[in-house]
Specification:
The protein is α/β, with parallel strands linked by helices and 224 residues long. The chain is 25% helix and 28% strand. It contains 7 helices and 11 strands. It has helices at 15-24, 37-42, 62-68, 80-89, 144-154, 182-188, 206-210, and strands at residues 9-10, 13-14, 51-54, 72-77, 94-97, 103-107, 112-116, 127-133, 155-167, 192-199, 217-223. The strands form 2 sheets. The protein has a 9-stranded mixed sheet. A two-stranded antiparallel sheet has the order 1-2. A hairpin with a 2-residue loop joins strand 1 (9-10) and strand 2 (13-14). The longest helix is centred in the middle third of the chain and has 11 residues, at 144-154. Bound molecules: S-adenosylmethionine. Residues 19, 30-31, 56-58, 60, 76-79, 82, 118-120, 133-135, 138, 177 line the site of S-adenosylmethionine.
């Protein structure tokens, strides 16, 4: 398995440059136009608090879905292109305010803000809940402990968490998105329950099928 040191350079490109290039060139095969089915099925009604953190949010329409359920939703995303596309795809007007590390893009008519910049520089008062789809699995193994530590710092101790992982044979094809197996998940959060899994092979990025993979499980984990 390829292991990336933090801040690695591969073929003279940093991780950051690689994500920005993907957005620039429209290589965003992970994006689900209709949002995530696992979120809609397993997000609890009203009892998980108000402020929801969505790390590495891309332009997911899940932000909209959560806001429509009454939450104040805060996403963090590196690529300004993604943020602008989120607002234009959904016909939402927004205002920008500049911060020390990250700029804030706030919708005029919905409780949605997206901070533009590196998640590892994001600071905030603690959130009530976490929705992670495509964040933990976007990061190579060496970066995940740092991501989890940063996320824990941004959450209340009893915060509700819905985390979506992928499970597949990493020896057949490399990420991102990476496989994150249960043995690793429990080292980060030992109170998570595995509540659902579906085979994602038909909708996963084409490189997986091209490499010969025949199954890839999308797994939903919930805090107890
Ligand atoms: C696999 S995509 C998932 C996007 C979104 N969660 C979804 O489900 O559609 C990962 C996203 O993380 C962003 N990203 C990667 N590293 C980041 C970082 N350090 N800080 C903020 N965003 C980052 C990328 O630009 C990309 O949009």
């Amino acid at each position: 398995m390829m292991v990336f040191p933090i801040g690695y350079r591969s073929c003279a490109k940093t991780v950051t440059e690689d994500w920005l290039d993907r957005w620039k060139n429209g290589r965003t095969g992970w994006h689900e136009a209709n949002g995530n089915a696992g979120l809609k099925c397993h997000w609890p009604p009203n009892d998980c608090g108000n402020r929801v953190l969505v790390p590495l949010c891309g332009k997911t329409s899940d932000l909209l879905w959560l806001a429509e359920r009454g939450h104040e939703v805060v996403g963090v995303e590196l690529a300004e292109i993604a943020i602008r596309e989120f607002f234009s795809d959904n016909n939402l007007a927004f205002q920008i305010s500049h911060g020390d590390h990250l700029d804030r893009y706030r919708a005029d008519d919905l409780p949605i803000s997206i901070y533009c910049g590196d998640y590892f520089h994001f600071v905030s008062t603690p959130f009530d809940a976490l929705y992670d789809r495509g964040a933990l699995v976007a990061l190579p193994p060496s970066m995940r402990p740092k991501y989890v530590a940063q996320t824990k710092q941004l959450l209340r101790r009893d915060a509700f968490r819905l985390i979506i992982t992928l499970e597949y044979d990493q020896s057949i094809v490399q990420g991102p998105p990476f496989a994150v197996l249960p043995a690793e998940i429990v080292t980060y959060w030992d109170d998570l329950q595995r509540v659902d899994e579906t085979d994602d092979i038909d909708t996963c990025p084409p490189k997986f099928r091209a490499a010969g993979l025949t199954a890839i499980q999308e797994v939903v984990w919930l805090s107890s």
